[in-house]
Design goal:
heterotrimer; A alpha/beta (370); B alpha/beta (258); C alpha+beta (80); B: Rossmann fold; seven-stranded mixed beta sheet; 10 helices; C: 80 residues; alpha+beta; Alpha-Beta Plaits; two-stranded antiparallel sheet
Chain lengths: 370, 258, 80
């Protein structure tokens, strides 16, 4: 198929349709509403399920119900709406069902704003809902990747009976760029053995997340964790840029990763040997790749559109062996390539330290500047 | 007792109930509501095409007692979950089984929206005027003056407001096709309740829209009464506040003969 | 002659709530005073003759524990 000029939210919605989405349930919230609007026309056109729910609570529980039937199902929302969905997401995880969520992050906390942000990294990758569970989290940095990874999200979610989240920020949802959509794939004809679709000629199937006996609950916790270990062993994905001879490396995901790549190119033009590691799977986190990278560079710079969330996962993986610096823009701000370049130059010239937390040094610099 | 001569079976446990002994307290009318639903689904031969949605409360384990597919919803969200199931599988029979804390308090948004959408599901709504599973706290359905563990001097309407009459409220929605209240306090009313459950499933099978049967129920343990006294309390205290009746019978529904 | 009937209480389910005792029109059901079931309840049982197999006990039973049977009335033979 040829490339066409596509808006992020619409591209994700149409890609989901072509990857066999059977049911979508959603609720309006900026900056993801185009997904809901687009699917309100597209899904009925194809005889598939679309419901505009009464709230995000309604939407996520409709997803829960549809997931019990084995259908390929999805919802989408943005930060405050995702907070409301956390109850249902925990239940879906506790019931060990596949479901896909698109989170188009905006500035927070609270009502915040509708500008692009990565402030929900911790909420999404480290749970958010109650109990021990582990969603698969994919972070595209372009509309093409968003198209590709929504398909991957369905596949991984169903393979591991797990939640899969496509985590993007408002700018990826709203921007337009050329990308190629997949061919239309047929909706699945056969359903998994666990699908509750009526006990026709078989015993009943029950889907629940309640295990009153703590021993049974613990077994379930172990089962979910064991499955997660498989995901960690097989599904880590990341992209590397200019790392072969790099003396310094940036770690950044999504839009921050995309801007960081521009900064890396500018730095290279100025003769600085810097590269970029961009995690595609935020969960499972590419910890080994980060650890190996840390061994061969003088310093790591983590760039995020938040107060420093992924930086803690980086630090947890490198065990203080390499100095780490952080640069972030929370609140709905996207860092400019020049800002990141200035950080690279500061690190190259400056004194590196293993003491203290990079977030504290960053905040002091930010507060002095303003 | 002597065996009779040639005999006929007047009543036996419905096949659609599993052989598990229930966890409900002695005399709790949840068991009657379960039995009626099972009898109706057996009579309609719907076992293999039914998917139940359990809620949170004493009936959280309803799925243990029905021999068909069941899913279990978060507190109050059963109508949304049922919507997800039903929209994907429109030719199946989907029903929720919810108590009054679940449906009339935390789940009010979901039940109103499902009824307003005319969601083609059936709701069996147990009104026993308190939160049963957590030990008898005040519910939206608790009567004025009724003593509960969280209204120890009786529900004070100045502070805690008034009970919600759910059937009356939902009956105002155009999407609701069949909304009735019945009571489980004596054989005659139990028969009428069964008939209403049958009608509700008929409504769904014919695709006529949202159907709900509210069932006035007892909670002897949390009311602090014997099962027999609880029946009398339901009859004398709850019935006047929550009259049984047909609150919404859509024109197409009225033509159904059972 | 009223019809003759009988009930079978599945003691596995019975919780001795007494609703069948209360509602029985013939007043022929009682709770077994000298016996308990596995759950520790005195199960319901027929205590007197006179069951008509009306089924009311089963209608009010919250545990679906009661099966009800009724004798099929015999056609009187000539001369009998």
């Amino acid at each position: 198929m040829a490339k066409e000029l596509l808006k992020g939210n619409v591209a994700i919605a149409e890609a989901a349709v072509r990857y066999g989405l059977e049911a979508y349930f959603g609720y309006p919230i900026t900056p993801q509403t185009e997904m809901l609007e687009y699917l309100s026309k597209r899904m009925p056109e194809l005889g598939r399920v679309f419901v505009q729910a009464e709230s995000e609570l309604g939407a996520v529980n409709m997803v829960y119900g549809a997931a019990c039937t084995g259908a390929r199902v999805m919802t989408s929302s943005s930060s405050p709406g995702i907070s409301l969905m956390m109850e249902g997401l925990s239940y879906i995880a506790g019931t060990e069902l596949p479901a896909v969520l698109v989170d188009v992050m905006r500035g927070g906390p609270g009502l915040g704003n509708i500008a692009p942000s990565q402030q929900d990294y911790n909420q999404i990758t480290h749970g958010g809902g109650h109990g021990d569970y582990y969603p698969i989290v994919l972070a595209p940095a372009s509309i093409q990747e968003a198209i590709d990874y929504i398909g991957l999200a369905f596949d991984l979610s169903e393979k591991y009976r797990s939640l899969a989240v496509l985590l993007i920020d408002g700018s990826l949802g709203q921007m337009m760029e050329p990308a190629e959509l997949p061919e239309m794939q047929p909706v699945r004809a056969a359903y998994p053995h666990w699908a509750a679709r009526g006990a026709t000629g078989r015993g009943r199937i029950v889907h629940t997340s309640i295990y009153l006996n703590p021993i049974e609950q613990e077994k379930t916790n172990f089962r979910i964790l064991s499955r997660w270990r498989e995901v960690q062993a097989n599904e880590v994905r990341f992209k590397e840029y200019y790392l072969d001879d790099a003396e310094y490396a940036i770690i950044a995901f999504g839009t921050a990763g995309r801007v960081a790549l521009s900064a890396v190119r500018a730095a290279r033009a100025a003769g600085i040997k810097v590269g970029l590691l961009r995690p595609i799977t935020l969960a499972p986190f590419p910890g080994n790749a980060v650890r190996e990278l840390a061994k061969r560079v003088q310093s790591l710079l983590v760039v995020e559109m938040n107060n420093g969330q992924m930086v803690d996962d980086v630090l947890a993986n490198i065990h203080d062996q390499t100095p780490v610096e952080f640069y972030g823009r929370p609140g709905g701000n996207v860092p400019l390539a020049d800002e990141i370049l200035a950080e690279i130059e500061r690190i190259v010239k400056g004194k590196l330290t293993l003491n203290g937390h990079p977030r504290d040094r960053w905040l002091d610099r930010m507060l002095t500047k303003s | 007792m002597d065996m009779l001569g040639e005999e006929t079976i007047v009543y036996e446990r419905p096949a659609t109930l599993t052989d598990l002994s229930s966890h409900y307290c002695p005399g709790c009318t949840h068991g009657i509501a379960h039995r009626l639903a099972a009898e109706v689904l057996d009579e309609m031969n719907f076992r293999e095409r039914t998917i139940g949605v359990a809620s949170v409360g004493c009936s959280v384990f309803a799925y243990n007692y029905f021999n068909f597919d069941f899913v279990q919803a978060p507190h109050g969200r059963a109508p949304a979950m049922a919507t997800g199931v039903k929209r994907v599988l429109p030719d199946r029979i989907v029903f929720t089984y919810q108590g009054d804390g679940d449906l009339a308090s935390i789940g009010m948004g979901e039940i109103v929206a499902a009824a307003a959408r005319g969601e083609n599901i059936t709701v069996i709504f147990i009104n026993n005027a308190n939160y049963g599973m957590t030990g008898g706290q005040m519910a939206p359905t608790t009567l004025p003056g009724q003593v509960t563990t969280s209204s120890p001097t009786g529900r004070d309407i100045e502070v805690a407001g008034f009970p919600i009459r759910v059937s009356e409220m939902l009956s105002s929605l155009d999407g609701a096709a069949y909304v009735v209240r019945r009571s489980l306090h004596d054989p005659k009313n139990i028969r009428l309740a069964k008939k209403a459950i049958r009608a509700a499933f008929e409504v769904q099978a014919r695709g006529l829209g949202f159907s709900m049967v509210e069932l006035l129920s007892t909670c002897p343990t949390n009311w602090g009464m014997t099962p027999v006294d609880a029946i009398h309390w339901l009859e004398t205290k709850m019935l006047p506040y929550y009259p049984v009746g047909d609150y919404k019978v859509g024109p197409a529904v009225a033509e159904i003969k059972i | 002659m009223p019809p003759k009937g009988r009930i079978e209480v599945n003691e596995k389910y019975c919780k001795a709530c007494g609703l069948c005792v209360e509602e029985c029109p013939q007043e022929v059901i009682g709770l077994a005073a000298n016996r308990i079931n596995a759950k520790g309840y005195h199960p319901a049982e027929l205590i007197n003759a006179g069951c008509t197999g009306c089924g009311i006990c089963a209608i009010v039973c919250p545990e679906a524990a009661i099966a009800v049977y009724r004798e099929i009335a015999k056609v009187k033979e000539p001369g009998a």
